Amino acid sequence: MIEVNNLCKQYANGFMALDHINLSVKKGEILALLGPNGAGKTTLISVICGIVNPSSGSVTIGGFDIIQNYRKTRSLIGLVPQELTTDAFETPWDNLTFSRGLFGLPKNPQKVEQVLKDLSLWDKKDERIMTLSGGMKRRLLIGKALVHEPQVLFLDEPTAGVDVGLRQDMWRMVDALRIQGVTIVLTTHYIEEAEAIADRIGVINGGKLLLVEDKQLLMSRLGQKQLKVELMTRLDNMPAELAAQGFRLAEDCLSVIYQYDKDGLEVNIAGLLQSVSDAGLGVKDIHTQQSSLEEIFVDLVGESV
Length: 305
Known about the structure:
- The chain has about 300 residues and is an alpha/beta fold.
- The protein has two domains: about 1-220, 3-Layer(aba) Sandwich (Rossmann fold), CATH 3.40.50.300; about 225-305, 2-Layer Sandwich (Alpha-Beta Plaits), CATH 3.30.70.
- About 35% of the residues lie in helices and about 30% in strands.
- It is built from eleven helices and 14 strands.
- Strand 12 (about 250) and strand 13 form a beta hairpin.
- Helix 3 (about 90-100) crosses helix 4 (about 110-120).
- The model has no long low-confidence stretch (mean pLDDT about 85).
């Protein structure tokens, strides 16, 4: 559905905002783009949506080039931008009706009603937008992106600074759109959201796309697992035999920790626990955990600097 080939965006001052980006997104897929502020996430979305002109490279949506077939590709796209930009004197009903008409679609009161109800704005449909709260205005922006029934939806930091209720409504709607076959690309600073709903994760930093990979494969490939053995009593010095095996002493001196990579198929957990017992240490509890997506993201971005 989305094909980005060797895409670059360089500004007049020489700043390279996008540096040879290559990306493919399948129909009905949810791709989460992660990256620090200034990484190039919004610039990439803006180029794909036809808001910013690329310096070189190409982008197609549904097989149509975004420059040669601008009207067609724009009709396939819905965009929820970061900034709240709405006509303060309009009503939500008029705003969505007008937005649908901009794409040459006939009036469809049933569709407008459905979108307003899905976003919990139905009771505000005849009020001026200036009277709505920030969260309601954010909901309205989402409605504007959906009312012309796009095949691709871009969500640029859609839940930044909004209440939990809107966030939950948003992800319920994302699930429903995925079922309908809508392709969704979102940027977010809430890494737990990407971990919860995305099919694939892309990490971008300094205008470079560091990787795009299936979420579970990424966590399996780059994540680490940790065996934490909680001790009955405080341990001031690590026994030499445990240190030689790779154990380290926790900062609170109440646990010993063994870190291992990937799926740990070659790690003998039972043997490690026996080593702790053989060292004369009383075991209070045992914990295992895997690196979170946030930890992987921080490591990747740190390596790219």
